[in-house]
Structure formats: structure tokens, C-alpha cells
Amino acid sequence: MNYSSPSSSWSEPHGGGTTAGGLHNGRWLHGFSVNVGITSSFIAELWGCREGLKLAHSLGISHLMLEMDSLLAVQLIHCRQLSVGPASILLNDIHLLLDHFHSCAILHTLGEGNKAANYMASIGHGSPLGIRYFPTPPASINLILLGDSAGTMFLRD
């Protein structure tokens, strides 16, 4: 997989697992971790997407590159149709939030190429239900962000 780091005018939220990630443009902007409880990885990915979009909008970010490791989530978000079913509220919220950005690229990535999201997600696993914000980077994330920005791939744990 090839990965191009976004330019400094683009920002990138990450989400994944049963919890969700952070925003960076090669350097830390702001982070979040969401423990949504017992759910599917697909629903958790949508939660992370929605929370990342909300955070990016609140920070005044207008150009966004969103990477998700759920191909189905990426496809349904690109579809931009009103949705029905268990994910409908999340998908409809995401579609409304996308209208707040000047440009937003939504890409599928493998989890192995996005260690920063995996690291942020791991923080939420032991957290109480709900969202936790990180205006300053947690320990060890800077080296992981550097690896993600350089396109470093890791073997699956």
C-alpha cells in the first residue's frame, strides 16, 4: 500500500476498533478516544468517523483526509444516500457533517498502515464509556505519527 502524507493544509482524523482515534497533519493537532461499548467494528468505525468529523469542524479545519480501515464504511459514506438500518443515524450524521468541509477525501487503508489510529483506539479500550479528548499528545504517539506519515507498514499484531 502506498501512503501520501497530507500537506500541512490538510488534516487527518483516524478511527478504528471499538474505540476511535485522533487528528494530525504530520504533527499532533488534537485527539480523541471513544469507547462505544460492545458493538461491531463497523459501527465503531462509523462512531470514530463521526467524532473525528465533529472535532475537525470544531477546530475550523476545512480540508480533510479521512482514512478508515472498514471498506464497507468507506463505500457507504461515498454513497451519500439516506440510510436505513442499524447504522443509519451514524451514516446520516456523517453525511451532514461532510457538508461543513471545503474538501474531504475518504480513503480505505489497512490497519497495519495506521498505527496512530490503533494506538489511540487502544487507549479507549480501558476507558469508561464515552468520549475522551486529548489536546496534547499521549506518550509515544509522536514516533508513531512519524512512522505513519512516512508510510511505514507494520505486520499485523
UniProtKB/TrEMBL annotation:
The lineage of its organism: Eukaryota, Viridiplantae, Streptophyta, Embryophyta, Tracheophyta. It holds the Pfam family RVT_3. One of its GO terms (molecular function) is RNA-DNA hybrid ribonuclease activity. PANTHER family: OS05G0353850 PROTEIN, POLYNUCLEOTIDYL TRANSFERASE, RIBONUCLEASE H-LIKE SUPERFAMILY PROTEIN. Gene3D superfamilies: Ribonuclease H-like superfamily/Ribonuclease H. InterPro entries: RNase_H-like, RNase_H-like_dom_plant, RNaseH-like_sf, RNaseH_domain, RNaseH_sf. It comes from Rubroshorea leprosula. Signal peptide: none annotated. It comes from the Eukaryota. This is RNase H type-1 domain-containing protein. Residues 24-122 form the RNase H type-1 domain.
